[in-house]
Amino acid sequence: MTRHVLAGLRPEPLSSYLAGLGLIRLLGEQADPAATAAWSPGGLVIETTIDDLPGWLANEYVPTPVLSPWNGGSGFGAKNNEPK
Question: What pLDDT digit, counting tens, does each position of 52-65 carry?
Answer without folding.
Answer: 999 999 999 988 87
